[in-house]
């Protein structure tokens, strides 16, 4: 109980010290904070909370800002998060994702504190071990949300690669039937569902707002960051700009993606085959050898 009391006292003291350091009348507003109300596209809710005139709003914004900066230092810069959110095709902003990481870190901290309290009641762990459990819980929460974002991006890329051959075939059929590239893309956007058709709809929206089709397609390749899709976009752009037969290019690109999918399936099958050998070599084979040698060893012991 003494270790638990020391942990609680240290936590309360640290929290009180952070509150005293972050009170509004002890800090001067930074340049970013002074310019935030006049800039468009900023976090409006945080700006309104900061200028609400209440001490609670100031403390909440200060705590959130510092927590987000700390989370950014732990899990990498905002550029990586912005790129992955763009690849995910979500409307989630970097600030919102950092807020989710802060919430996940708080949940992990609570879980670590609960585990430390349970272990401290009967085992008599040191204060350093208990604080280490709390820190580990916080890190697991923050980094776990970051890894979840990576997993979501990988899953979306896999879905796009799965949808890509069928979309390319539909585009080739539409172009072969006499439609132009823009009309073929519009047909795919209207008749197909999935992540790749959603990206095509976004590309068409960009093209209809005044941008050229080539620029909108290049933006599609930059957003997804998939090499096969980037080659596909380059083929369409070259065919549109130089007047080469687009249907043949689309069919060739679809065949390339099918070959890539087949190679990845073969590689995955090879890795799974090697993984299936692990229990055979380290579990089944030793038990088989033991059953084969044990009768002989027992007979030798009896004769001796």
Automatic annotation (TrEMBL):
It holds the Pfam family T2SSF. Keywords: Cell membrane, Membrane, Transmembrane, Transmembrane helix. It comes from the Bacteria. Residues 169-292 form the Type II secretion system protein GspF domain. It is found in: Cell membrane. Its main location: membrane. The chain crosses the membrane at residues 6-25, 102-120, 126-144, 274-294. It is a multi-pass membrane protein. InterPro entries: T2SS_GspF_dom (IPR018076), T2SS_GspF_sf (IPR042094). Gene3D superfamilies: Type II secretion system (T2SS), domain F. PANTHER family: INTEGRAL MEMBRANE PROTEIN-RELATED, PILUS ASSEMBLE PROTEIN. This is Tight adherence protein C. It comes from Kineosporia succinea.
